[in-house]
DNA sequence: GCCTGTGAAGCTATTCACAGCT
DNA sequence: AGCTGTGAATAGCTTCACAGGC
């Protein structure tokens, strides 16, 4: 049932939830689709379509109840038991990501880090222990980890991904600037920062002339 | 003319260039569209369409000349004089990005960093001097900076973006997890890592049942 | 009147499929 | 035979526009 929702819609739902959370903290209680659209830089029709996908219904006169809607998005997006992640590659970027993700979502946290550098193994980064790669399978099973973040150099990314696949990881957030070749049942989301920066450079130039 | 190429195509061209560079280093000289497609995890037809967009033509019998193609992509994507970027927000993430982007592309480099923390101002990060925000306009003009990377906390992102707009920045790579409201002639690419991780969590779960 | 929910239209992006070349 | 380049077809996503409700 839920597999029929597009990746783009899932992304926007994640965004809506955050924006709604901020509105809630400011004391708002209800929102119209066009208000949420404005915050999210989308259109009202799209907001309504996205909410249709999760089966949430608003009220034509008051709009959407913010608290309720946040709950509905959570019911749809989050695993009830929460989701544990592993970080592979405790370099500059890896450490920044650990900090960035820590405490952001109650149901989604990085529970273990891995590196091949013996200087890092056994140390705590934030509240996250760094293990050697050889213990990947064991730790992943113990801590019920299902998703992983790859923050290793490009040359090691594919090898790392293969090990993750063997460890039964089902989803990967990939920061290495190379596409990963993996079995089709593993979901991969690429964060190609080089691509992103080159895009910005290109369109900035295109706009300037 | 070049504005007619879609953002997705631009992104893939950036990827192709990197993949071709690696193939070149391995000693390859020619490539067929299906070979590049395999590396890029796309289809042969799409590779050919993308190359059509930049007006590069291959040879039906030998395929594409790798060196030549890298050159053509460069002619299309890169500003001949190069493109200078600024980094705003020298926290954990900002520093990781400085390291990540340094030396990756000859024609695209981060030339200045900005922060509001006086402890950071005046220091060198990598080869990048950290300036106070008050000097943004001046430094941007002096160093001919046209694009910027936002790596500040969510609460400060919009304010930072407004200052960048005032400083005549034409493109922004935004790592803050909030959409930015800016004049339409400024290109913004969002790197919403929270969204990406939630997507991975969702589809990993969907695949597991 | 101004909202939501949604079928239908419109767009954009991708893939098919084949003519033309070597 | 096996490739490229490309019109035509398809699939996927977004927006329009309006019925129905308060």
Task: Explain what this protein looks like in three dimensions.
The structure is a homodimer of 209-residue chains. Chain A has 209 residues and is α/β, with parallel strands linked by helices. Helix content of chain A is 45%, strand content 19%. In chain A, strands 5-6-4-3-7-8-9 form a 7-stranded mixed beta sheet, with helices on both faces. In chain A, strands 1-2 form a two-stranded antiparallel sheet. In chain A, strand 5 and strand 6 form a beta hairpin. In chain A, helix 1 packs antiparallel against helix 4. Chain A is globular and about 60 Å long. At the A-B interface, helix 1, helix 5, strand 7, strand 8 and strand 9 of A face helix 1, helix 5, strand 7, strand 8 and strand 9 of B.
Assembly category: homodimer
Q: Hey, roughly how much beta strand do the residues of chain A contain? A: 15-25%
The largest inter-chain interface, given as chain pair and residues per side, is: A-B, 64 and 64 residues
SSE arrangement of chain A, N to C: HEHHEHEHEEEHEHEEH
End-to-end separation of chain A: 48 Å
* Helix share bin of chain A: 40-55%
CA-based gyration radius of chain A: 20 Å
| Strand arrangement, major sheet of chain A | 5-6-4-3-7-8-9
Question: What coarse outline of chain A follows from CA principal-axis ratios?
Answer: globular
The major pleated sheet of chain A works out as: 7 strands, mixed
* Poorly predicted runs of 5 or more residues of chain A: none
**What's the count of strands of chain A?**
9
Task: Output mean pLDDT of chain A.
Answer: 96
Query: Helical segment tally of chain A?
Result: 8
């Amino acid at each position: 049932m839920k597999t029929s929702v597009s990746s783009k819609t899932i992304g926007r739902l994640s965004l809506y939830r955050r924006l709604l959370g901020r509105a809630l903290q400011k004391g708002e209680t209800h929102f119209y689709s066009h208000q949420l659209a404005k915050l999210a830089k989308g259109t009202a029709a799209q907001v309504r379509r996205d909410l249709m996908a999760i089966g949430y219904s608003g009220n034509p006169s008051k709009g959407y109840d913010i608290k309720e809607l946040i709950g509905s998005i959570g019911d749809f997006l989050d695993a009830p038991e929460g989701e544990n992640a592993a970080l592979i590659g405790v370099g500059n970027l890896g450490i920044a990501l650990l900090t960035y993700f820590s405490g952001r979502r109650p149901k989604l946290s990085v529970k273990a880090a891995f590196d091949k550098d013996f200087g890092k193994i056994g140390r705590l980064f934030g509240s996250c222990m760094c293990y050697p790669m050889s213990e990947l399978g064991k730790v992943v099973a113990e801590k019920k980890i299902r998703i992983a973040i790859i923050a290793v150099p490009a040359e090691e990314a594919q090898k790392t991904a293969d090990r993750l696949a063997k460890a039964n990881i089902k989803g990967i957030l990939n920061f290495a600037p190379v596409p990963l070749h993996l079995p089709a049942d593993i979901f991969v989301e690429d964060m190609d920062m080089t691509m992103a920066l080159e895009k910005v450079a290109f369109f900035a130039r295109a706009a300037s002339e």
